[in-house]
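Protocol check, entry for the methods section draft. Step 1: assemble the input record (protein sequence plus ligand SMILES). Step 2: submit for complex structure prediction. Step 3: store the structure tokens unaltered in the notebook. Ligand used here: zinc ion. Step 1 record:
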Amino acid sequence: MKILSVSDQVDPRIYSDKLKERHNDVAFVLSCGDLPYEYLEFIISGLNQPLYFVHGNHDHSKKIEQDETQTHPLGGDNLHGRICREQGLLLAGIDGSIQYNRKTKYQYTQGEMWSHVLRLVPGMLYNKLAYGRFLDIFVTHAPPRGVHEGVDWTHQGIKAFRWLIDNFQPAYHFHGHIHIYRPDTVIETRIGKTLVINTFQSRVTKIQTDFD
Ligand SMILES: [Zn+2]
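Step 3, stored output:
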């Protein structure tokens, strides 16, 4: 099964009338945040496949009418603090980055990130009983602590995400927030059974689905 992930910067190869032709075999789409809502809506209508997203630290409400604001891409499904099943896969996600100023909504302290993660635990325990695994795909904007993180405050990894990986071992953790400027930047790191993937612009990942 192939999935398309997008994050952080609009990819002209995606924002193109060749989108369907290039990606007609993806099962669903993940957005790791910081992308314009209309771009995500273009992907949803262009591919006609489900799109799950988390918000990035730069996401904000968009005024569309005098008294109406848009807070998410229409037709997209926000994974924040939830567990969803998509084509047999167990997905969960968490919005935002570490708090570095109070100017945008999706910024959290490490402590707040812990509470987001801990809220997923009962659902993951249920998954283990019902499906034999806690979680298949974890989607966040920020990276986990110690993996792909930046050296500055804003791009630090989240401790609670690392704890989730270490203890619940989802097969994949997709994140964004870390822009790639050099071709030798590490974008995939294995932590036990979890493959941590930094998406910048877009990528297609062939998902392993034989979890047993
Ligand atoms: Zn970001």
